[in-house]
Design a protein that fits this description.
Layout (H helix, E strand, L loop, with lengths): L9 H15 L3 H18 L1 H12 L3 H27 L2 E3 L8 E9 L2 E5 L5 H14 L3 E5 L5 H14 L5 E3 L4 H7 L6 E5 L2 H12 L4 E5 L5 E4 L5 H13 L11 E5 L3 H16 L15 H16 L3 E4 L3 E2 L4 E2 L2 E4 L6 H4 L6 E7 L2 H9 L6 E5 L3 H9 L5 E4 L20 E2 L4 H7 L1 E9 L14 H7 L1
Parallel strand pairs: 3-4, 3-6, 4-5, 6-7, 8-9, 8-15, 9-14, 13-14, 15-16
Antiparallel strand pairs: 1-2, 2-18, 7-17, 10-13, 11-12
Helix pairs in contact: 2-3, 2-4, 3-4, 3-6, 4-5, 5-15, 9-10
The protein binds nicotinamide-adenine-dinucleotide.
Amino acid sequence: MIDFTDNKYSNLFEKQKAHQLTIGKTTYKDRIKKLKRLQVAIEKTYKQELRDALYKDFKKPQLEVDLTEIYPVVDEIKFISKHLKSWLRNQKVDTPISLLGSSSWIKNESKGVCLIISPWNFPVNLTFGPLVSAIAAGNAVILKPSEMTPHTSKVMSKIVSELFNENEVALIEGEVEVSQELLKLPFNHIFFTGSPQVGKIVMKAASEHLTSVTLELGGKSPVIVDDTSNLDKAVKKIIFGKFLNAGQTCIAPDYVLINESIKSEFIKSFKKHLKDFYSEDVSNSDSFGRIVNQKHFERLNGYLEDAKFRNASITIGGNSEEKENYIEPTVVFDASEDSELMQNEIFGPILPVKTYTSISEVLDYINSKEKPLALYIFSSNKKRINEIINNTRAGSTCINHNLLQFLNHNLPFGGSNNSGIGKSHGYFGFLEFTNQRSVLKQHTLGAVDLLTPPYTNFKQKLVD
Ligand code: NAD
């Protein structure tokens, strides 16, 4: 047995461990009551504080906070509250004739003590969203939000300590070192949202205790726009998906592949809709956020400098303001394959666009890269849409729009390999925090003892 007594968080962990079976025995009604308290806190009591905190952290527009941080968590609570009773019911399954005299069922039991590590880009949504699934499944939880959005973490910490005893849910604020220390503990499940690089660190740490993991990661999500799409609508939707949260969205379009024949129309439409959304001077628009900090501002500006150096063409935008961590919505054509823009997940308001002449070219290009978290298709050609879906792999796909797949609780949300392991949302998120325990009960009457010695000729004949 490894001794954890010198770990800074071992006391808290032990408290939760001692309490986990009690939480695991709570009814669906008890759990819904807890979830409803969380709903009231974020939807009413602390709504304005959360909005203010997110504005201080990176000038997130208020309506974006309501729609992308608060609403998805509230909606998840409502959805789960509707279904939890049936998810917690033992699920009877058939028992084969060879096990005559037995009955079988699946019991969805809690995993135990879980760790949730979340990123900064949608800090409320991506901390409380998984928490909702974990509570629904009857777990004790330690939350570690990102150090990059400290104002929001502070309000979330206040909410958690007001609503929960720490032997049930606790939130620990702090830097990377906090995660590193927590990751040494033998959690029963770790739910991590963040970059693939840190995902690998989390998985390595989890392997030490054979802790199960959910990894919600990132990557480069492509958008394909073909010559049969409604171009004007497609462009409008891409601008929404790309520049929401100033491009700092895991499922935002990372780059666009357009049919060569629609290039000039694409640029014209892009300029028009950008102006309609954010006015002539985007820096003065209340609808456009900022880059989270100077480090990421410099990273993104570095990508732009590198693209220029490699002769890419900055077709739209390209301006920035260091004082504000502001980067203008920017469209880049002809970024070379070895450029930073095409090698890394961009996670900011810069959109490289490449042209293609055939769909097979598009498929080869996408398949030469890691599996994306999302793949988007704008087309009205059904056959081509199917061809693209059947010949690629991705965590999710949205046809003729983007981002919306995140909002349907009936769809699993997550990546595949480099973009993630495991799924979240609705029943899929609940399952992630659940052990599906198999139970087989042999009834005394009618039991056939075929399996026990002595292995007589009679038993052999029955098997033959
Ligand atoms: P990140 O991986 O840098 O950090 C995420 C969390 O991990 C933070 O809480 C941080 O404190 C912690 N962390 C960072 N380094 C660590 C280390 N060495 N050891 C242990 N913990 C560590 O990610 P980020 O910058 O906060 O978020 C951006 C990334 O997250 C992007 O790649 C984005 O695509 C991805 N993301 C994915 C989803 C999804 O649902 N799939 C959602 C949002 C963001």
